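User: Show me an example of a complex going from sequences to structure tokens.

Assistant: Sure. Here are the input components:
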Amino acid sequence: MDDKVGLRARDFWTSLILIALSVTFLWQTSLLPFYDAKAAGVNSAQWFNSAAIVPFGIFGLLLLLAISLLTISIRDGGATRALRSIGINDRVELRRIALLSLILIAYIVGLVPRVDFVLASGLTLTALTYGFHSGRTVPMALSAAFACLPAVFAVAAHPFPDEWAKPHDDDAITLAAWIGLTVSMFAIESRRGAIDRVIKATPLVALMAPLILVIGMAFGFRQNVPNRTGLVFAQIEYHYYVTLRPLWSGD
Amino acid sequence: MEFVLDQLIAFASSLYTLASDPLTYLYLVASVFLGIVFGALPGLTATLAVTILTGFFGNKFPLEQSLIALIGAYVGAIYGGSYPSILLNIPGTAASAATAMDGHPLAKEGRGGEALGITTTASFIGTLFGAFCLLIFVWLLLLVAKNIASPEKALLALFGILLSGTLMSQDLVIKGWIAGLIGLAMAMVGMDPILSEARYTFGWSYLLSGFQIVPVLMGAFAIPQILDGMRAAVGGAAPLPVGRIVPRLREVMRHFPGILRSGGIGTGIGALPGVGEDVAGWVSYGVAKSVARDSSRFGLGSLRGLISAETANNAAIGGALIPLLVLGIPGSPPAAALLGALKINNVIPGPTIDPALIVHIVAILVMASLTMFLMGLFTARVFILILKLPRTVFLPVVLVLTTIGSFSVGGGINDLFLMLGVGFAAYAMTAMKYPIAPLVIGVILGGLFDETFRRSLLISDGDLSIFITRPGAAILVALNVALILSQIPAARRLVAACLPKSPAIGKD
């Protein structure tokens, strides 16, 4: 019962957010031409053909459903709870999600666009496996710090897309963070006693998984891969075309 | 009858072409294996398996080869979910949730091998049943579909989103509808399909082409699983021991009528737009329990219960492909991922689809189910070993897989940002018990709904009666209205009051 009230408390806040979003997007939709839409410069469109008609319906319905949700949450006691707290009381869970989210943001926003894919993924794999395998706070915080530092550096040093490909200083810092995290992981775990099998296997998985993936994607599936000029991938690509390929193409 | 024979001949020819190409076996074995692994690892889903492979194959491979891999993974993943359901009491995928009801009690009785063997056989026959229905009924529906115009298409798309929202909701039904509307709203971003008017782009050129399907799918299905699944995993899971896996023919034959009934239910439920294999499994389980002479064993280790759920969820694969190929409306979330793959290969499903492609897909389904059957019987112990992998090892690898897959399809970093944004939003929605499948179906069908709805009004010069004067459209309007009213308590009470009351049983 208490869990349901907690859920309704979250529904209370969600419905308010949905109402705000619906109203905002209804206003945005009102900026689209409705009665005087032009197709290829000719004023041939009618209200029923307007680009705004379907969005008006969608956001109008969303507003109605959000109001219904608000009514249900108030009726079921969610509003009373919501005004005292946001309905989330598990601090350990919040900390876990916050640190995980930080690592994901560091990886996708900071590292992948700027840093060599093998290095960025190796660091992230190590951080996620070591950080969250035991459920202890110290590995989680340490992993998040090691994953975020090179990402913050990469974003600060090379904020714009035209700077993402060339310099390798962020690659070097990511590699250093990866090595640092791996060494710290073994140092901390060995001090605690016998090292878990998963921890022992982590460096191998962290190296091999992105390496196999990136090679398979680039040369097997012939797909685009992130940051082709990265420290490791540039070497792989060079040796693939210059050293290996002539062996079977007979050039 | 002549029509069925023609179909079977075309299918046999396609099957022969497929079977005589050595590449087929390479793709099939690899993709079915990957699919079973994805199904067996709790937290990974069939939709994710198909989406990740879509990212890998993109449009750089011949479509026929990509389809072998995608359908192989789809079939494998729906079946693979039964392993943790039976041996750990943790459904590997939502589709195998009903399997755990009787599978795990059987494993606890020391009959885990028997349960796995009968599950493998039921899944195999179920997939074949669905494939056969796809082969036969898709043509009948294609004939009907030629008379389906914009009004019917718009209403069908709406029905798919509403039905998915209604059936997938775990909490309030309006949460499913809200999820569907959010998906529809996301589909409105970009250039509109009729007047090329830019909508909600906020001056960002990336948004002009709208949200790409693959990053949205990856974000919606992978990121929430990663955020939710990364919990302490000391020791990993310990599956129950299994004995002989290969089932006895006599046992299979004894349950054959039940397998056929469940196959029919699974295919029918799968063919409903937006409703997935999980609903098929539960409905079939419920029907099997209600028709059983002695239903007391259901939930305690009944082979009938196990067979009904597993046959239906695999039969739903063929069913889900029927509306996908005939109307371009996916029957389930993995079918939605398959639609994404077809679209990036410039194949537009619908009445004008190449008939040879449909027969080819049926042949792939048959080959994939055979591969799954053989792998399930003879390499099951490999998959049981995989169950011991802790989530903290495989989920980070999934993150890397989805990142590179999402990047490769569009070739841009913005797709990764989109994936992350959708992922966080989907996680928040999952935590508040909003279903994700209607959102994805909404994103996929939003463009179709927008275009066909406005085209209908264009044809009728703004007259809304076009949605009730055409017989097909009128039926669909009635279905949509009935579906909405059935979820409104006041409307239900009104209907109940209008209906004649049945006489009380047991009273004089």
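The lines above are the inputs; the final block is the predicted structure for all two components together. Chain B touches chain A through 65 residues (CB under 8 Å).
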